[in-house]
Amino acid sequence: MELSTPRKKVVVFDYGFGNIRSAERALAHVGADVEVTRDYDTAMNAEGLLVPGVGAFASCMKGLREARGDWVVGRRLAGGRPVMGICVGMQILFGRGIEHDVETEGLDEWPGTVGPLKADIVPHMGWNTVEAPQDSRLFAGLDADERYYFVHSYAVHQWELEVSNPAMRAPQVTWATHGEPFVAAVENGPLWATQFHPEKSGDAGAQLLSNWIDTL
């Protein structure tokens, strides 16, 4: 008798900010065993942790800290356990965010600042292409002209992390442009993130989430 492959356990961390039900449905659609929770032990023991985020940087950070999400993310990454951030869930992984001249400390997993987009039309809302590295695992199997769904007014405009050890795999940074270039996605060891919403990006977003699950 042929045995089925066990589904990967993924937790969507529920700290009060983010399209958690959309993320839950999208992950289940591509074959993950999904649970939405803020339970510390469940989030720590899952094979993958997804951190969503919608709204203001400061509010997301406050909610995340109150739910002990900062501890969960830090402990998981210290043990090499996969974490993926989406939208503001990506932004809070950087050192700081500046909104309306107010600076808020982020998780500082990556150095850098989240600041306002400088474009004729803000927010950046709708479909856009990205420029991914050729050896990207996140975008594997996806055409260069695929479009992804963005909704944001702030972004990271400069990638600051430098890897001096040649034995380490350099972070894979994907860019997009809306008025100016900004970081659209990052793959850095167990920590991956997207500024766009894969759960709202149709078949391309489903392929991207499937690529992440395949690495768990």
UniProtKB/TrEMBL annotation:
Entry's EC annotation: 4.3.2.10, 3.5.1.2
Subcellular location: Cytoplasm
Active site: 87 (nucleophile), 197, 199
Catalytic function, reaction form: L-glutamine + H2O = L-glutamate + NH4(+); 5-[(5-phospho-1-deoxy-D-ribulos-1-ylimino)methylamino]-1-(5-phospho-beta-D-ribosyl)imidazole-4-carboxamide + L-glutamine = D-erythro-1-(imidazol-4-yl)glycerol 3-phosphate + 5-amino-1-(5-phospho-beta-D-ribosyl)imidazole-4-carboxamide + L-glutamate + H(+)
Pathway: Amino-acid biosynthesis; L-histidine biosynthesis; L-histidine from 5-phospho-alpha-D-ribose 1-diphosphate: step 5/9
Ranges where the Glutamine amidotransferase domain occurs: 11-212
Entry keywords, A to Z: Amino-acid biosynthesis, Cytoplasm, Glutamine amidotransferase, Histidine biosynthesis, Hydrolase, Lyase
One GO MF term attached to the UniProt entry: lyase activity
Gene3D superfamilies assigned: 3.40.50.880
Entry-linked CDD domains: GATase1_IGP_Synthase (cd01748)
PROSITE patterns associated with the record: GATASE_TYPE_1 (PS51273)
Predominant place of localization: cytoplasm
Known function: IGPS catalyzes the conversion of PRFAR and glutamine to IGP, AICAR and glutamate. The HisH subunit catalyzes the hydrolysis of glutamine to glutamate and ammonia as part of the synthesis of IGP and AICAR. The resulting ammonia molecule is channeled to the active site of HisF.
NCBIfam families on file: IMP_synth_hisH
Complex and partners: Heterodimer of HisH and HisF.
Protein name: Imidazole glycerol phosphate synthase subunit HisH
